[in-house]
Each structure stands twice: as C-alpha cells, then as structure tokens.
Amino acid sequence: MNDIRALIERDVEEFTTLRRDLHQHPELAFHEIRTGGIVADLLEKWGYTVERNIGTTGIVGQLRHGEGSAAIGLRADMDALPILEATGLPYASVNSGVMHACGHDGHTTMLLAAAKTLAERRNFNGTVNLIFQPAEEYGRPDSGAARMVADGLFEKFPCDAVFGIHNMPGSPQGQLQFYDGAMMASSDSVSIKITGRGGHGAQPHTTADPIVATAAIVMALQTVVARNVNPLDAAVVTVGVMQAGIANNVIPENARIELTVRCFKPDVRDLLEQRIRDLVATQAQSLGVKADIDYCRGYPALQNSTEETEFARAIGEQFAAEGNFVAQTTPMTGSEDFAFMLEKCPGSYIFLGNGDQPGPVSRALHNDGFDFNDANIVEGAAYWVALTEEFLNGKTGRKN
C-alpha cells in the first residue's frame, strides 16, 4: 500500500491545486460542463477511452489491461449546491450562490488521482470503469445516477461491482467506514395543497378554514411513525414547510405543507405513503376542505451488497492506519442517488472521515462553511487504487 501512496503523494500538489480550482468554480446539477470537460480531457491524456454526456453531463473513462474479463466501476459525483459560500477561503466559489458544500470537488479529485495512478501502474488484469456522475444533489427520481443508468451505463460499461466513496465530516480524517445492508434511507417528497373557503377572520363560521385543517393534518402525521411503523424499523416523517395567509384578520382560501419521508425498507416506504394519503384525506374531509397530494418518490434506500462490502472492508482493514477503521458503521437517514446504481449492479458505498478538528473540514455537509479535507486526496485515491488492483487481480478470496 505504501508504494501506491508514494506515487500519489508525488503529484499531491497538482491534485490539491485541481481540487481547489473545482471548488472555486462549482456547477449545479446537469450544468457540470467545465468540470466534466476537465475530467474528460485528463482521462484522455492518461490513456482512457472516454465517453461524454452520459445521462446529460456524465463522463465515463475506461481503461483495459491484460486479458482478464473482470470489470469494476468506481463512481464520483461532480455537482455543487445552491448555497452562498461563507468560508472566506482564498479559493472560495466565484459563482455566487453556488458552492461545493458536500465535497464533490474532493470526490472528483480523488478519483482523478486514482485514474492517473492506475494508468501509470497498470497493475491489474481486466477493465476499470471510472464513472463521473452529475446531479447527485438533484433530489428527484431523474437524478444524475438515474439518468446515467437509463442511458445504458451498465450496458455500455458492464461492471461486476460498483463502488462509491463519500467524505464524512466529524469523523477522524482518513477513517474508512463500511456497512453491510441498507446504509442510507430512501427519500420521498410530499406537497399537500389544502383548499378551503376564505373569509373574514371575525366570521370564521362562514368559512372552511384551511389553516385549522393544516394544523390538524400536521398533528395527525406525527402518529404515522409512532403508531403505524414497527418500532424496530427506522422511519422519519418531517413537515418542513407550512404556508398560509398574509393578514391576521383574514382566513385564506389555501394553505400548503411539504414533507420529507425517509425509511430503509420498501414495505415501510409503501406503508408510509398509504398512511399519509389516508390521514390527509380523512382529516380534510372531516373539516370540510379539499386536499390535493403530490407524492414524489425520490431516491431509494442505498443497499450495500454483502459480498462486495466484505471485499471492500477487507481491503480497508489492510489499508487504514491503526484504529482508523470502522467495520460496521451506523446507517444514516440522509439519502444518496448512488442507490440507483446499486439497484442495477452489486457494490458498496464507503464513508471516508473528513476530519473531527474544529474548522471547515468538520462542518456539517451542506453547510456554507464546509470544505473538503485535502489530506484525503491521497487517502481516497490510494484506497481506490488498492481496491481496484485487488478486485481485478482476484486476491483476498474474492469469488469469481
């Protein structure tokens, strides 16, 4: 492992400069034109066959070596978030209101550093598919991963397994964390419009008050998880938006609420949707208003497959510094569209500690003060190289 690290450390200044350039020029979902161009040009320079514009702005670089038939996929996300950066860093975003607040600039750089090292070493027997994905932050069922899959990603670039890494602020820098099973939750969005009959606030008896109905619905929704979901199954129903009215003496015609719904099991997901629909309908009917529900299923739960996770964990245990390794971490109710790829191909998603010292690297993801830890460029890239070479060379007892 040390020889891999040494090779990447040789170019660490180059890749640190690249990471900070990507941070300074963030691009939103499906607008990763500059980023994708840099990625594609570098991959071609290093000898990869490159296909552009998969799933709108996605990039795949492929490198074959030897006669082996095994193929691995490594994925990095490229998009940024609609956040106004407040880090004050010299390489802070120049695109006002757009920021790499989730570390995708670092994920892209780690995979590029691995790409260069794999091409230089060529110490594998098979095919490497490097997947640079757009629009992970899109939050809709037609996200970057979903579009790449629909665009024939795994038909054009067959993989025996696919892997992804995400940085994890608050965890020790370089710590590798694994999980066998449902690691991240599904994420659904619900928008509910309540239509009543407006009127004067002094004459409520002449109205059908959508605010009262909305309040009743919000309270009823608190029973969905508490009284319908098995206590051994995790689920979340959160009302994040509640809007109605513009004056204190006017009962409005309409009100609106929006929810986020999270869980880890498909049957629980179905149960949550049915109970939410039933409760909203009955509460609205009982109070004489109309409820229109727009229920949008977003990302599925991210399900790591057992064999591939065991393999990734075995490499991580050899690779990680002493004690900087978590064999089975805690699942998260956040969501991740890499789940769409895992529905089509076995694989595993891995967390990489971004740092637990006070400062930008330990700020929460999606925080306007967050920054990716450049020390992880070497750690992440070296792990990618070790994982790829071991996988394609059939070591550590991997089944073929």
From TrEMBL:
Gene3D superfamilies, alphabetized: 3.30.70.360, Zn peptidases (3.40.630.10)
Record-linked Pfam families: M20_dimer, Peptidase_M20
Residue ranges crossing the lipid bilayer per the database entry: none
InterPro entries recorded: Amidohydrolase (IPR017439), Bact_exopeptidase_dim_dom (IPR036264), Peptidase_M20 (IPR002933), Peptidase_M20_dimer (IPR011650)
Keywords annotated in UniProt: Hydrolase
Domain Peptidase M20 dimerisation span(s) in chain numbering: 189-284
PANTHER family: METALLOPEPTIDASE, PUTATIVE (AFU_ORTHOLOGUE AFUA_6G09600)-RELATED (PTHR11014:SF63), PEPTIDASE M20 FAMILY MEMBER (PTHR11014)
Name of protein: M20 aminoacylase family protein
Species for this entry: Pseudochrobactrum kiredjianiae
